[in-house]
Every structure is written in C-alpha cells, then in structure tokens.
Design goal:
By secondary structure, the protein is α/β, with parallel strands linked by helices. 39% of the residues lie in helices and 16% in strands. The protein is built from seven helices and eight strands. Strands 1, 2, 3, 4, 5, 6, 7 and 8 form an eight-stranded mixed beta sheet that branches. Helix 1 runs antiparallel to helix 2, helix 1 (8-29) packs across helix 4 (111-117) and helix 2 (36-53) packs across helix 3. The longest helix has 22 residues, at 8-29.
Length: 242
C-alpha cells in the first residue's frame, strides 16, 4: 500500500476510468446491442487513456507488416511483466483483442461484469472440467472474430525476465488451428512492476510484433515444438535470447 501513496491520483484515475468504461458498457448493453467495432474502439480509448495518463511513450515495431485476415483465428502471446502490457497490446494489434483471463478477475464487482459483456474470456485454473468448457468457449469466440490475448507465462514476471511457458494456450492454438502472433514488450516493467502500485511516468516502451506462427502446422504430439518456436521468438524480441 505504500506505493499507492506515492502516486494516488494516477492509481485512482486508472481504477476510475476502468470502472467507468465497465459501467458504461453494462448500462448500454442492457438497453441495446453494441457492435464489435464500437466495442473495439471503446477499449482502445480505454487503453489510450491509461497510457496518456502516465505520459507513456511507446513505439510499435512491425517488421513483418502484420495484417489480420478476416475469417482466421488468432492468438496474441506476449511476455508479461506489468499491468500496462494489456493496454499496450490493444494499441499494437489492430483487431478485436480480448484477454483470456483467470476466473477470479470476473468476480470483481462491476469490472468483472464489464469484461464479460465486452467478450473477454475467463479460464478456471482450479477446475479442470470447467477449464475444458472455457477453452471450448474460447474457440467459439475466436471463430466469431475475437483475437485472444494470452500471457503464456501464466502470471506477471517480477523481474522482467521471461518465465517458463505454460502449455494450455498452445493446446488451444492447435485445437483451433489458430495463428499465434508473438509480441515482445520491452520496458513496461519499469513503468509498473508486478505486485506493485508504484507507477513511473514518462517512460519509453517498445512493442515488437514477431512473425506469425501457424499452429495448424503442429499437432498434440508436437505441441512442445510450437511452444519452443514461440518462446524463442519472444525471447529474441525482448533481447533475452539464449
């Protein structure tokens, strides 16, 4: 909590704008339908508001000229060391990006309901049977045009060093025939570290978009090869290649 008192206005603004967009979405969807395009624009407004609030400068590097094709399933896989990785990813990938998030986040009043209404997808890590259903729902949402954002490390890195990857996201990618977009974010841990409320303003962050990997070229038996291929790219993008 000591970190909160170092920048209370910044933290309050971030929480406030998040709950504002959640309430806005919940109320609007209770009376009428909202198009996916409108929701995408709203989420990018949210992301831009959070980044502007801390004077964060970011540069997007897209050497492979990524362009999402209609009708294809995509999963963004990103290193994760800061809460700001999600708004940064929303600004970097021009699509209907939604986070695959742990179930506990959806239990948060207002925010959780706003996430669900906005087509974010939950995963119950403590209930294997429910997790299977969650993955089935995730595949359905991708077929409808949702681009899933997954942190293959499973949680935020406290040091910025890439942690071992979990296999769940790669199983989902293979089963759905998705294309994985590796994303490397450099510098976000200096903005706001994991398990901390301290926010450092005016930092520079670089977002590197890697070469897409077609998971349909892999099978259940070669899942670890897919994992290694994506991990190798992300390590290279963030300057932590072995």
């Amino acid at each position: 909590m000591n970190d909160f008192f170092k920048n209370p206005i910044t933290v309050i603004y971030a929480v406030g704008v998040t709950f504002f967009i959640s309430i806005w979405t919940i109320l609007e969807l209770s009376v009428r339908k909202v198009s996916r395009k409108t929701m995408d624009s709203r989420l990018r407004w949210w992301a831009k508001s959070l980044l502007n609030n801390i004077d964060l400068n970011y540069t997007i590097h897209n050497p492979h000229n990524l362009s999402l094709e209609k009708g294809k399933s995509y999963i963004v896989m990103c290193n994760h060391s800061s809460q700001y990785d999600i708004p940064l990813s929303l600004m970097a990938v021009n699509g209907s990006v939604r986070m695959l998030a742990k179930k506990e986040l959806f239990d948060i009043p207002i925010w959780g309901k706003g996430m669900k209404k906005s087509d974010f997808v939950s995963i119950d890590r403590n209930n294997p049977r429910q997790a299977v259903k969650d993955m089935r729902y995730a595949r359905t949402m991708m077929k409808k045009g949702i681009v899933l954002w997954i942190a293959p490390e499973g949680t935020r890195s406290k040091t910025g060093k890439l942690q071992p990857f979990k296999t769940g996201g790669f199983r989902l990618a293979i089963e759905s025939g998705a294309t994985i977009i590796p994303l490397g974010i450099v510098g976000s841990n200096k903005v706001m570290q994991a398990k901390s409320l301290k926010i450092n303003k005016g930092k520079q962050v670089d977002i590197y978009i890697g070469k897409p990997v077609d998971a349909s070229d892999y099978s259940k038996q070669t899942r670890n090869e897919l994992l290694k291929a994506v991990e190798s790219q992300i390590r290279f993008l963030i300057g932590q290649a072995n």
